[in-house]
Design goal:
The chain has about 250 residues and is an alpha+beta fold. The chain contains four helices and 13 strands. It starts with a strand and ends with a helix.
Length: about 250
């Protein structure tokens, strides 16, 4: 949605999601050992995993076709993080699933943070991947990238797992920085199959611009050609006034 400003000097671009169901994702702190209940945020009820599995059972496929599944991810800890700028990373983690994004808090003065933060996601497409990115401090312009991992939902392991972080090029980092997760997921295969034959949801979350050497070289050449053209025009005009070529100068004055 694009809304023009009252002053007429600009426009505001909105991305609106209207739904009558529960939120796409929510979170809560874990206390001690993980229990078998799923918090529904501000919802007054609690569902245990038996009820969640029943909700996505094949016999209940017809009740909510678009609700493919449910994913719960507990971000427990990260180890061996490294900052090239400071002694400590002050790390925070961002989790993205499709167009849903949630984050942990930033923990100061540590390279081995413990969050124990639990996030709950509604799965819309089983072919999506869970992206986890770590930054030093708040994720904003100038913050340091610490590592990233992308886990396809179909390859997600249930239970505890340690995942090695990768750099921006997808290469495992030296020093084996890891993030420790505890995951539980359930989905309805029929709903997932129906969603598969439909167009994929366009991802509108902001992605960091990647450096493109070819675009840079093309831009430099374009600027150089413009400068060269301007200099040639200036040289020609200067020649007219200097009467270097009398014919050209006379024609220019006529």
């Amino acid at each position: 949605m694009v809304v023009p400003l009252d002053s007429g000097e600009g426009k505001i671009h909105f991305l609106l999601t209207i739904t009558g169901t529960a939120a796409a994702a929510w979170s809560h702190e874990t206390e001690g050992e993980a229990d078998n209940r799923v918090s529904l945020g501000n919802h007054p009820l609690y569902l245990d995993w038996a009820e969640v599995r029943k909700k996505y059972h094949l016999l209940n496929t017809h009740k909510a076709i678009k609700d493919v599944g449910f994913l719960q991810v507990t971000v427990e800890t990260a180890v061996n993080l490294h900052s090239s700028r400071h002694q400590f990373c002050d790390p925070m983690a961002i989790l993205e699933l499709g167009n849903t994004s949630v984050r942990t808090s930033s923990l100061a003065k540590t390279n081995n943070p413990t969050w124990n933060k639990r996030f709950n996601f509604h799965i819309k497409d089983i072919h999506e991947a869970l992206d986890i990115t770590l930054y030093s401090g708040e994720a904003k312009k100038g913050s340091e990238f610490l590592g990233k991992v992308s886990i396809p939902l179909l390859k997600l392991q249930a239970g505890p797992q340690a995942v090695t972080l990768r750099d921006k090029g997808g290469i495992e980092q030296v020093g084996k920085a890891e993030i420790h997760l505890y995951c539980q997921m359930v989905y309805n295969p029929v709903r997932a199959s129906i969603r598969t034959i439909q167009p994929r949801e366009v991802k509108v979350l902001h992605e960091e611009d990647k450096f493109n050497r070819r675009v840079l070289v093309s831009g430099i050449r374009r600027v150089a050609n413009i400068i060269r053209t301007i200099l040639m025009v200036l040289q020609f005009v200067n020649g007219l006034f200097a009467w270097e070529n009398k014919v050209h100068s006379v024609l220019a004055l006529i």
